[in-house]
């Protein structure tokens, strides 16, 4: 019924709003819930969410889900605060609310661009438009691919790999990237690693994990793990081996993936919100997504505002000032570099699990 209602809307079939994603989060997060909205005993909508202490709620999989909101039958009118009260929630937080969720978007405090690639006219049509926008981009990328093949080995692409070793390698690359840039390592969180493992083993056509790997010779040089439905591929965790950075293996992988996706019936590739130069190079247009929270005037709602809004306001202040944002990014990267050096020190001060804890202490000093 969930899928039937979703299919009756004009929203894209984003796999993050499929019931399989919610069920998978429910296996790794104890607070996962689904509110079922009924009219005359018949379901007319679903709201997946997570419930925490003091009634603080959040979108299902917040922090890793790239499309959030309620699945509502067209014409269904929802009072968000009344819905929260029925769920026993004081607040409900979202950071990538999909466009068209008007009842919840009224509570947004930020609007973000979420770039997408349209493949409705096929890969050849997309490539033609890419060449028209950036004539040298495709030519330079192909030249790098040829150099990689000459110097390392034949370049081959596996669009849908089931190799667990390749998935672990991707996680290691991504963890190193998070640490290097001073950001929180998502794969250090057990529930996220567990969620990826679950989705990687799934086979549902409307929501399944897909691991794509680019090899040079027998060596993986770039990989991506994302979620897909029959028509939408959601970009999720891309990473590459920095030893081959001169060949732009990430871009090589992206173009191979887009070609394979178009051949397999994918019409939209959602690159996800957040700034990145490669997204600007590859996108055909932007969707709009929203960040904010529905908050009820109860003690738990006040707790949410005190805990979340000052940090969000500070982040918005920095982001809206490019020079300050650039300085903050450099500081984060510097802290990440220092943390990596401490973690790898051969004298034991930064090696192994104990060293990682000591490095975290060092990072805290730098940030102060």
From TrEMBL:
Coiled-coil features, chain-numbered ranges: none
Disordered: region residues: 332-368
Pfam hit, one: Acetyltransf_6
InterPro entries found in the cross-reference section: Acyl_CoA_acyltransferase, BioF2-like_GNAT_dom
Domain BioF2-like acetyltransferase stretches: 139-280
Leader peptide range in chain numbering: none
Gly residues composition-biased segments: 348-360
The protein's name in its UniProt record: Cellulose biosynthesis protein CelD
């Amino acid at each position: 019924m969930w899928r039937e209602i979703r299919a009756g809307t004009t929203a894209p079939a984003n796999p993050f709003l499929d019931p399989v994603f919610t069920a998978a989060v429910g296996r790794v997060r104890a607070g996962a819930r689904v509110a079922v909205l009924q009219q005359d005993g018949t379901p007319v909508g679903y709201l997946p969410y997570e419930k925490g202490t003091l009634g603080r709620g959040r979108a299902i999989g917040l922090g890793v889900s790239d499309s959030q909101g309620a699945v509502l039958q067209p014409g269904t009118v929802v009072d968000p605060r009344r819905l929260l009260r029925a769920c026993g929630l004081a607040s409900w937080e979202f950071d990538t609310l999909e466009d068209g969720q008007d009842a919840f978007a009224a509570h947004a405090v930020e609007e973000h661009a979420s770039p997408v690639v349209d493949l409705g006219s096929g890969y050849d049509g997309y490539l033609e438009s890419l060449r028209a926008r950036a004539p040298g981009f495709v030519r330079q990328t192909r030249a790098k691919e040829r150099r990689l093949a000459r110097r390392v080995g034949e370049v081959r692409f596996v669009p849908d790999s089931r190799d667990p070793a390749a998935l672990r390698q991707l996680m290691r690359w991504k963890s190193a990237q998070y640490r290097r840039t001073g950001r929180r390592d998502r794969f250090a969180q057990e529930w996220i690693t567990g969620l990826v493992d679950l989705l990687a083993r799934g086979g549902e056509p409307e929501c399944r994990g897909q691991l794509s790997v680019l090899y040079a010779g027998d060596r993986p040089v770039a990989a991506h793990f994302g979620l897909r439905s029959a028509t939408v591929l959601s970009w999720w965790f891309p990473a590459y081996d920095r030893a081959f950075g001169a060949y732009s293996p990430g871009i090589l992988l992206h173009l191979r993936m887009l070609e394979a996706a178009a051949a397999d019936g994918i019409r939209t590739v959602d690159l996800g919100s957040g700034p990145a130069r490669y997204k600007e190079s590859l996108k055909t247009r932007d969707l709009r997504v929203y960040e904010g929270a529905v908050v009820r005037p109860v003690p738990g709602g006040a707790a949410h505002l005190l805990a979340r809004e000052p940090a969000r306001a500070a982040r918005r202040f920095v982001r809206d000032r490019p020079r300050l944002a650039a300085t903050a990014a450099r500081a984060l990267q510097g802290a990440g570099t220092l943390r990596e050096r401490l973690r790898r020190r051969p004298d034991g001060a930064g090696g192994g699990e104990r060293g990682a804890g000591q490095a975290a202490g060092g990072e805290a000093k730098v940030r102060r």
